[in-house]
Amino acid sequence: MMLQEKILTVWQYKMSVENIHLAIEQLYKIVENKKYMDLIPRYYDDINDSTASLGVLFGQLVCNSYGWKWRAVGDSEGKNYISIVSPNEYFCLFPLHYINKIVSEKNIGLDGENDNTIILLYNMLAKVEEHPRDMLLCPLG
After folding, report:
1. Is the per-residue pLDDT at 78 higher than 80?
2. Pick from 31, 39, 37: which is nearest to 117 by CA?
3. Which of 6, 34, 65, 78 is least buried, going by the fewest C-beta atoms within 10 A?
């Protein structure tokens, strides 16, 4: 099954929790495996297109798991970005940017190394609404 078909499967159907966890693990492995990212499938123009699809997949997995929703978020009408927001809108995440940041090795941790934090972030989002911030749509990731 090609990556695009997997994304459509996640998008169209509610997956079981076990399958979502397996999908998150597979997404982690895809992003971690730089050899895969170097072999951009021919239906993608460049690495940004490929990471956008992976970002949509990650975002939809979070939505399916935790009840988040897709929404345009920005500081003005002309500057909105594709994001997902938590059920009570305390938090937002920009999954396309987040995955692109990891793949382009710009997700630098405290150790100065690029960190693939997909599984960590996914797991932390399970209880994030238990700790609301003073503002709505606090950005994560």
Report:
1. no
2. 31
3. 78
Look at the block and give the residue holding tokens 């599984």.
119
Residue-wise pLDDT tens digits, 18-42: 778 888 888 888 887 765 555 555 5
Residue 77: strand pairing partners: none
Model pTM greater than 0.90? Answer: no
* 122 in Cβ contact with 24 (< 8 Å): yes
Please calculate the CA angle 30-33-36 and round it to the nearest 5 degrees.
75
Identity at 79, one-letter amino acid code: K
Alpha carbon distances (Å) from 25 to 21, 93, 110, 123: 6, 19, 23, 11
Residues across the chain: 141
Helix axes 17-32, 3-12, angle to 10 degrees: 150
Q: CA-CA distance, 112 to 90, in Å (whole number)?
A: 29
Q: How far is CA 62 from CA 77, 96, 119, in A?
A: 25, 13, 11
Nearest of 72, 45, 84, 65 to residue 126 by alpha carbon: 65
Average pLDDT rounded to a whole number, residues 65-81: 86
Question: What gap in Å lies between CA 129 and CA 18, rounded to an integer?
Answer: 22
